[in-house]
Amino acid sequence: SPYVMAAIGVRQARRYFLCSEIMTAMQAQQIGLIHEYVTTEQLDESIERIQHWIGKAGTEALKHAKQLIASYSPANTEQERKQQDQQNAKLIARLRVSKEGQEGLSAFLEKRPADWIKAQ
Fold first, then answer.
1. d(C-alpha 75, C-alpha 3), whole Å
2. For residue 49, which phi and psi values (nearest 5 degrees)?
3. CA 56 to CA 75: how far, in whole Å?
4. Looking at the predicted structure, is the pLDDT value of residue 85 above 80?
5. Alpha carbon distance 114, 107 (integer Å)
6. What is the distance in angstroms between the CA of the first residue and the CA of the last residue of the chain?
7. Would you say residue 120 has pLDDT above 80?
């Protein structure tokens, strides 16, 4: 329940939790429960597109992005949010000067694929 409420909001949760109304995929997308919906025929193409974009990210960047997402809570106090912002600023600074960060910045500036993309 907390995950769904965070995704769709309390107002939508009231509607669907209390009424047990069945929603369409389009409704689920409109309220933020799913990112997209596709037909069975479009499924493989959709998966390949997502894999393509995930494959462009560095492994360290993905790892830290997942940790950042997992640490977020809309229930955090203002002090906790400020502390998280400070931690994020330090993380970004550290990642920017890391080997992967430097390769990513260089690749961007030189308009070329990063090394981790070339290896695929």
1. 12
2. -65, -45
3. 32
4. yes
5. 5
6. 39
7. no
Please state, rounded to an integer, the average pLDDT across all residues of the chain.
89
For residue 120, the 8-state DSSP code is: -
* Residues in Cβ contact with 68 at an 8 Å cutoff, skipping those fewer than 6 apart: 88, 91
**Which residue do the tokens 């931690």 mark?**
87
Q: How far is 22 from 32, CA to CA, in rounded Å?
A: 15
Q: What is the DSSP string of 33-57?
A: S-S----GGGHHHHHHHHHHHHTTS
- Residue 92: closest CA among 104, 80, 81: 104
Q: What is the pTM of this model?
A: 0.64
Helix axes 78-96, 59-71, angle to 10 degrees: 180
114 sits in the region (left: phi over 0; alpha: psi -120 to 50; else beta) called beta
Q: What is the pLDDT of residues 66-76, one digit of tens each?
A: 988 888 777 77
User: What average pLDDT does the segment 96-107 reach?
Assistant: 92
